[in-house]
Amino acid sequence: MAIKLELRLAAIFIFTAIKATAAFFTVIAMCLKTEKNNNMPRAVFAAMLFFPFAAHALQALSEQELGAVQGRDGVTIGLEVPQGQSITAEQIRWEVDQGEVDANSDSLQNHLIIGGTDIDAQQFAIKPIDLDGTAGSQALNFALAIDSYTNNEGRAGLGLDATWNRMRVQMDSLSVTDTSRSFGAVALDAGGRFAVFGDGGFANSSLIADQARVIVNVGDINNTDPDPNTWTMGQPGRLFYRMGPAGSTEVQLDNFGFLFDMHQGTVGVNSDGIVVSSAPGSRTDLNLTFDVYANVANGASTAFQFNEQSIPMLLFGWRGGIEDFDLQLRPQGTWLPDDGAFTQGLTASLGFDLADNFQFILGEARYEDSGNEGQSYLEFTQPISLPTTLGQTRKDLEFGYLTLDTVSAAHQSVGGICFGGANTYGSTPSACSTSTGGVLPTELLEIAPSDTGLAIINREWGLHAYSSKVVYRDGVSAANNIDEGWALIYTLGDISTNWYLYPQSGDGATPGSPGFTMDVVAAIQTEGGADANGRPDRSRWENGTHLMIGDTDFQTSYHDTSNPTADGLAIGLMGADLLFATNDMGVGVSLGDGLNLSSNEVRLQLRGMFGGGDVPRMESPVYGSYIDMNLEMDEFVFKIFPSLNGDAINFGGFLSLANLNNGFSNDTGSGHGHDDGTYISFAEPNLNKLNVDVRLADITGDIEIPSNFILAGGGGKIDLLSASGEADGKPKLRIENNLNVGALATKPGGGAGDPLEIGRIEFGGKDLGSMIIPAAKIYTSLTLEQQ
């Protein structure tokens, strides 16, 4: 019997951790409404949730059978959503800090809303869907198997194994407190599986209960073989996002697949929250891969459909094995600066090591029915960990604390971020303590929340391993694959960020009408100082941020013949720091501008030691110069969009260099004694003498990257040229760019740009004069290819 169910849900999730009783409570309040020709009592509907809708047998098991049951040999509950029908919720609300106030008696209360209101068409829906995004040609079937068993260690366990065929989960609106302002709409089309097999019960957090297993599989990924190059996707998923109404420009993720398969470990609940950790020496498989597309021509009737209007841009993803996985999910939000008390929200802590087969892939996007990769791409693999000779205890990838909460302009926030100093979870510094032994200056940067929205707070993150091998894989013929023995070294020492995201009522396509705005302060830093001679100490390498290119064909004194890519030589920026800060940055997605970012206050700073040496130990480093580049912009526009034929990525923008002279400007010139605004510095390779430099200071003026395609004489272009498509049979990565400088630049609002002026040319702090470029056109092209 076909029944259309419409559910009006108002869900309040209240998470409370009570350490004394080791309890973790989640309270969900729901209001349900059903519609049919004749009324169905709510109690009947509630009871139906516990019984099969389809022809699944519900069988009682004896004690003997419960002790021996394995696999899916237990009770199965089925739910069917008939073809053309759906499960809908007009609104789902997550209430946080209800009735709570800060030290100033300002309300902390907000609510995250999925769906809309009683009077509009916005909603949350689950329904059958076909591969092309049209209405499902078959029913949606959920099946939940509940098994009881005894594992190999003689402990009882309970397993839940849920599966579903292809369905669409669609959120027409995501807002914070005010339903008239939304982040946009999202839809996920996929089948999947979610399974938890407990050890010592169902949620036993004891470390000895380490035979549990967790499987999350979206896209039907087959990971039978440990080699991720053999993994296939049987039912690729699709993820859609738009900012405006149906028919707006969409970002589409095709061939979307997510897999988390922890073969052995602990799954439980303790006094802090939910714990998931893998057993020592066990295998955990991870896959997150997708092709990025832009659809600029879908109409309202074809919204959230993948079709010939979808333009390929990029293949992106991670896949392979991870080890020593540890996840903790706490019922805890941000903290208040006065007393350090935590608000309501969610905080996750996550860390793991990268197995030797773990890969990061980047390349061409291309439509594939089966999800098997038929495109050319780069594979970054065989990760190598930075050394820990100083006694550090850490994992290759660490997300110390990731907090999701809500924020409003009226109440207190977590405070600022120290650049050049330490940032500790749960603390609000009034001043910065150095993390570099005083060789680099410290700055406290804070952008207070200016609206109601989401707060995403990160502390104590880091990436402490790099890919020692890069392989080019050709989409036409494996004979064209290339492994030339080079490495891309990108490690991230310490990451701390404050993100405040504010939904807007704009469509994301009209100038001045962004889909959402954001305030951001993000710092990626290197901790450690210098010796008496100004040479970086050991910790700046082992705990540092490094951006380098390596040659793994070179054999160091500690070369291991059994692992030939594990060592080599590298050159680039060592012990680097990166800062990004912006106030009221608008984010939009549109036909003419692609993904576009715009703000009148942006600061971007990158500094580090240019040099090289042996990797991974860096026993004999060679230093060239300490480079410091600080860009402050009072008008910033950046756009990224696909080429029309889908063979490259185009980018454009506008930079108006300035001296911001505001709360997050570099008003000391990085310890130079005065405000240099936008500057570029080349100093001695001595951290104790960074004031001995050649400096281009107080730079002002306009630079435009024209937004038209580079073949028409403007814009920027990133293109991976496949070996099979090149006359010399060699793959190439090419980055081209056109710049209009000064009067030849066109301001976003129209009119000629301002001349590019270097206010002071300094050497060792002495002013040598100034320089001006009234107008110029600059073309650059960088091509990386096999030799």
Shape: globular
Please give the share of residues in helix: under 10%
**Helical segment tally?**
3
Radius of gyration: 28 Å
Uncertain spans, ≥5 residues at pLDDT below 50?
1-72
Termini separation: 67 Å
Strand content: over 45%
Structural class: mainly beta
Task: Write down the overall mean pLDDT.
Answer: 86
The major pleated sheet works out as:
36 strands, mixed
| DSSP, total strands | 45
Q: How would you characterize this protein structure?
A:
The protein has 787 residues and is mainly beta. Helices cover 2% and strands 49% of the residues. It contains three helices and 45 strands. The strands form five sheets. The protein has a 36-stranded mixed β-sheet that branches. It has a three-stranded antiparallel β-sheet with strand order 6-7-11, with no helix packed on it. It has a two-stranded antiparallel sheet with strand order 2-3. Strand 35 and strand 36 (622-642) form a beta hairpin. The N and C termini lie far apart (67 Å). Residues 1-72 have low confidence and may be disordered.
Task: Explain the layout of strands and helices.
Blueprint: E1 5-7, E2 14-18, E3 23-27, H1 42-48, H2 63-68, E4 75-81, E5 87-89, E6 91-96, E7 110-115, E8 124-128, E9 140-150, E10 156-171, E11 174-176, E12 185-197, E13 212-218, E14 221-222, E15 232-233, E16 237-242, E17 250-270, E18 273-278, E19 284-295, E20 310-330, E21 346-354, E22 359-363, E23 377-385, E24 397-407, E25 417-419, E26 443-445, E27 453-463, E28 465-473, E29 482-483, E30 486-503, E31 516-525, H3 538-542, E32 546-551, E33 568-590, E34 594-599, E35 602-615, E36 622-642, E37 649-657, E38 679-683, E39 693-705, E40 716-721, E41 732-742, E42 756-763, E43 766-767, E44 771-773, E45 775-785
Parallel strand pairs: 1-5
Antiparallel strand pairs: 2-3, 4-9, 5-8, 6-7, 7-11, 8-10, 9-10, 10-12, 12-13, 12-16, 13-17, 14-15, 16-17, 17-18, 17-19, 18-20, 19-20, 20-21, 20-22, 21-24, 22-23, 23-28, 24-27, 25-26, 27-30, 28-29, 30-31, 30-32, 31-33, 32-33, 33-34, 33-35, 34-36, 35-36, 36-37, 36-38, 37-39, 37-40, 38-39, 39-41, ...
